[in-house]
Amino acid sequence: MLLCPDCLSLRATAEPCPRDGATPLDYATALVGRRLGPWLLRAKVSEGGMAIVYAAEHEQLGRLAAIKVLRPELSLREPLVARFLQEARAVSLIGHKNIVTVYDFGRAPGDTSYIVMEYLHGATLRELIDGRRALPLERLAAIVEQVGQALAAAHDKGFVHCDVKPENIVVDDSGARPAVKLLDFGIATLLSADASDLGAPTAVGTAPYMAPEQLAQGPVDARTDVYALGVLTYELLTGRHPFPGQTPLACVGSRPSGPPRPPSRERTDLSSAVATGVDAVVLHALALAPEQRYAGARPFLAALQHALGSAAASAAGGGVGAPRALARRLARRRRGRGPAPGARGGPARPGLAATPRGLAGQRLRPARAATARPTRSEGRRASPRPRRRPSSLPP
Ligand SMILES: Nc1ncnc2c1ncn2[C@@H]1O[C@H](COP(=O)(O)OP(=O)(O)OP(=O)(O)O)[C@@H](O)[C@H]1O
Ligand SMILES: [Mg+2]
Question: CA within 20 to 30 Å of 108's CA: 31, 53, 170, 233, which one?
Fold first, then answer.
């Protein structure tokens, strides 16, 4: 969808706007430098299937926030708008330290629906792990525990997240321990509502992380998130997906028919006691039938903690590197030197000035086009590539 930069009307083609002759711009880019209530959109952070996320600044308070704007073509579908805004209500209702905080939400003139959230510093877990082998156990335990606590809090309030994946987890390594936040409750609210007006039933989620019952569009519950947590833990343990070759499309077409290779076969630095325990826990979480999995995130976490035991505290080296080394690299990135952790070459997002003031009015060149997106029948989201976040936002 395009936007006329002068009259702000939505344009379907790149033809000059009939009202003022201005050349329409890509919608996501055209919003940068514009206002949503008191918020000035400073830079685009990410562009997904449902929404575009911006770094924004409150003009009076100077406060930094992330604003998620529903894609304009979806803004015309009232049930989708209602569900988009329900994400904000769900997150506020759950209110947990490992879940992003929502400040506000609403609709601006021109039918722009938006959610204002705390701006999360750090990197997505996808950025941190992509192209690397495995995480040290201590770091893995800290991250999985915080994701699991966030999910347990959501389940307590009756929400199933349904889209647990590294792209929806932000890790801040600026402290002594990684601080983790879970994002994107868009599907949780979607599934808790009547989905009939979304057209033909579809598997909604990110296929490689979807439990069989979610892929089959069956009923979901806390155990559906346990499965995704199992996939995530397997990935952090081994650096690979439990079902390699399961592209998003293949996942929908052919669901896993049996257990994956035990994770310890993919990782050689585990003692036999830890290997046995971890294999049992992860494979239990990845059971195809929900009734054969842990009943929720808490029992999964307790079992994982038990399996890792002191190994989590003493495990050394291998994988992505110690948190402190990562923190140093993130700090270098914030200062504009060196690539983002996990970057595989190619430009990251355009570097931004170091203060919100320095960003004023800045037009950024469009971010790289999103990677091939699945059709809805392939799952709503399947963007396995890391999405770079503005590299030098203020601390
Ligand atoms: N509060 C935030 N602070 C910083 N970055 C954020 C924040 N919220 C989202 N992001 C960034 O934007 C990306 C997309 O956010 P989110 O998953 O909520 O949107 P989405 O449109 O539902 O995405 P998709 O459909 O691709 O899953 C995240 O992976 C993260 O990089
Ligand atoms: Mg997302």
Answer: 170
